[in-house]
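Is this the right way to post structure tokens for a design question? Let me know if I should format differently. Anyway, here goes:
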């Protein structure tokens, strides 16, 4: 449920307050630090009442930037529950945490099997052979699985066609970058945590003193890509440009010149980065082309012209003596040297750009390929648990009907803002769907929501855990056939190590 359909004026979310009187805290300094003990719904709107939030709230993220442990600590304080129930609530939340991570672990096992023929990092023998149709189906399933996990981990998707629109004109690292998206068969770009961080730079306005400024960043940036097969790209160029096959091959190879040699069209690559400046998203792609900025072109061209001035003047003044080869040779050498220096200035500037890009990517990179899947699975499970704990903390103590969900959504958002200073878009519908699916919450014909007590909810998860292995589905690979010994040896003898 989006908060876009709710309004804060309809809800009073707190009935109990507490004072932070820890040594050195706000109270010790003569100020009260008031935080809510629990999420309490009062003054629920009448049935049929529409609650609408301001339009500016629609772009808030679902991501809850606190740990599940900190949230569990706040939600299970004794004053937030009837006597004796806070300990049971903590136990249930711990069970829920283990249960949710286990369910995502099962998804990870299936994804790893699907990813096997596309992994660029595997040091294991590939023992199954696949048809092109099977690989196509596995590729589609893999991409959709990653998209689902990213959504559950509260990432937001960026349309590759819109990348240019979200970039700022000035690169934070002083780079002018370009990416040719026509080379990719699959591209997924997701981010989480659009914010800013402080940085410093020297400015002429303050006589070269450092000035602090805000850098728009993505706290997390995910990239998945798969190259188009070369022959497919050649056919596209022939159709789009109306050129011969030979010319299309030349153009396709030129486009791939910016790719590292190790990038293969049969692999699916995944990258996860942290704190990437929004103006430099292009630098995370494998075919990033570094271009000269206009200022660089002016400075380098000016330096080149100045460098050529001396030889040209010398050539003009000694024009009458050029018939003498002993006089002409030094002039030609000087002229050629000036041209060479000008060309090297351009090359050196480009190399400097490449070093800057490589250095910054080194510190921004978090994980690659299979490591990305593991991180995202863990994050998706944690986000689900946090959402479920927040919703359960309301439903276990309040009588609620489905028509009350809008008010509950806003109450949870106000609790997060009052307690942690977070302004987020709480994903109530998703959390409720999971609690209903697991039987923690049930709904009757009238839309009334019935929630198990903390003790009963913990016992319910305990029973589901006991049945887990009995009901575990068989992970059928669906595609491919096991190779015979001779074919296996032939396939894996293609690489020196015998591994894929």
């Amino acid at each position: 449920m989006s908060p876009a359909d709710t309004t804060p004026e309809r809800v009073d979310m707190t009935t109990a307050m507490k004072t932070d009187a820890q040594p050195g805290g706000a109270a010790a300094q003569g100020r009260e630090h008031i935080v809510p003990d629990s999420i309490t719904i009062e003054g629920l709107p009448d049935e049929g009442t529409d609650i609408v939030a301001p339009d500016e709230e629609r772009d808030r993220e679902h991501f809850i930037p606190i740990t599940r442990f900190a949230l569990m600590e706040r939600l299970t304080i004794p004053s937030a529950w009837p006597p004796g129930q806070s300990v049971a609530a903590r136990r249930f939340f711990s069970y829920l945490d283990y249960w949710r991570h286990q369910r995502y672990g099962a998804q990870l096992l299936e994804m790893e099997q699907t990813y096997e023929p596309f992994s660029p990092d595997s040091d294991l023998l590939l023992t199954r052979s696949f048809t092109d149709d099977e690989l196509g189906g596995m590729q589609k399933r893999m991409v959709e699985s990653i998209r689902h996990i990213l959504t559950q981990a509260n990432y937001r998707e960026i349309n590759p066609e819109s990348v240019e629109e979200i970039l700022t004109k000035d690169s934070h690292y002083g780079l002018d970058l370009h990416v040719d998206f026509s080379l990719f068969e699959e591209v997924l770009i997701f981010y989480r945590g659009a914010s800013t961080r402080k940085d410093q730079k020297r400015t002429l306005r303050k006589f070269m003193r450092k000035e602090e400024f805000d850098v728009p960043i993505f706290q997390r940036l995910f990239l998945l890509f798969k190259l188009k097969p070369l022959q497919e790209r050649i056919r596209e160029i022939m159709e789009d440009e109306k050129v011969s096959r030979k010319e299309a091959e030349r153009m396709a190879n030129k486009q791939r010149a910016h790719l590292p040699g190790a990038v293969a069209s049969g692999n699916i690559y995944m990258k996860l980065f942290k704190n990437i400046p929004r103006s430099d998203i292009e630098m995370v792609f494998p075919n990033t082309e570094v271009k000269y900025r206009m200022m660089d072109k002016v400075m380098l061209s000016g330096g080149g012209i100045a460098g050529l001035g001396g030889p040209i003047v010398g050539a003009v003044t000694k024009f009458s003596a050029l018939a003498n080869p002993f006089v002409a040779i030094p002039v030609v050498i000087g002229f050629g040297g000036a041209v060479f220096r000008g060309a090297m200035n351009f090359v050196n500037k480009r190399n400097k750009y490449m070093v800057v890009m490589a250095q910054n990517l080194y510190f921004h990179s978090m994980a690659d390929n299979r490591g990305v899947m593991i991180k995202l699975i863990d994050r998706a499970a944690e986000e689900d648990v946090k959402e479920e704990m927040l919703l359960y903390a309301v439903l276990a103590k309040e009588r609620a009907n489905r028509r009350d969900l809008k008010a509950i959504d806003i109450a949870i958002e106000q609790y997060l803002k009052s307690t942690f200073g977070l302004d987020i878009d709480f994903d109530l519908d998703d959390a409720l769907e999971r609690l209903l699916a697991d039987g923690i919450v049930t709904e009757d014909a009238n839309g009334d929501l019935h929630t198990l007590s903390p003790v009963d909810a913990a016992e319910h998860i305990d029973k589901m855990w006991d049945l887990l292995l009995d009901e575990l589905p068989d992970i059928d690979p669906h595609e491919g056939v096991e190779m015979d010994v001779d074919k296996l040896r032939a396939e894996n003898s293609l690489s020196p190590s015998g591994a894929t």
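Format looks fine. Someone answered above. Worth noting: The first helix runs from residue 68 to 75. The CA atoms of residues 65 and 422 lie 8 Å apart.
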